[in-house]
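Q: Could you fold this chain for me?
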Amino acid sequence: MKVTKTVFAALLALCCLPACAQQKFETYLWPQGAPVSSTDKADTAKVWVYLPKKEEATGRAVVICPGGGYSHLAIGHEGHDWAPFFNNMVIAAIVLKYRLPHGDREVPIGDAEEAMRLVRRNAQNWNINPDDVGIMGSSAGGHLASTIATHATGDAAPNFQILFYPVITMMPDITHKGSHDSLLGTKPKKKVEQEYSSDLKVTRVTPRAFIALSDDDDGVLPANGVNYYIELYRHDVPATLHVYPSGGHGWGNRDSFKYHNEMQLDLKAWLRSF
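A: Sure. Below is the predicted structure, expressed as structure tokens.
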């Protein structure tokens, strides 16, 4: 019996080697202090880095921006819970805890841009291809991700974007009011709303996109993601849009989402397409 248990334990250890070989660590985004200060001095930006096995790494990486209406972060099901999915595809996952804006849009935007630059600065040590770094976001995190995709330049610019039930526009008719007010304030000028409406900022060099949402989402109107897809299509940017029949808002990587398996298969297929 002892021999059998020993053999079983050895086999189990061998089966666990790939998972154990994955590396996870966290680091502050601005160890010397952020160039744009937050009104909340206790709110600090940092990332959790999940790396696949070195010998299996594809070189691809994705920075993950959780949602939360720019008032809090759903960093569990829209952040950390995605890391195993990407690591199983031997893709590095970098979960970003960005600082909340409190009306200063430069705070979260600056954090997201620095996260992109951080990944590229460490590309060699983390076995990442600096030309294959994407950004992902859910809900308000989708707005942040699409803002980086349409505004950022140089080492802060992503090579691809993944958006789940995203807030896209800041225009009052279909925006998510909570995200709008937290990011821009309650009475921003129209030109500011236009500047941070990602559908109005698409160009032919905007990176390819995967967009997924539910038809019955009454938290963030589906028109946000649909309009963004239309603009990407109009500008000849490769994009795919998946609209699931139900599920509402905020499902993230939860198994309870009725179309969870289909969603993961759709995303896997898209990631393998380029």
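A (continued): DSSP finds eight helices and eight strands in the chain.
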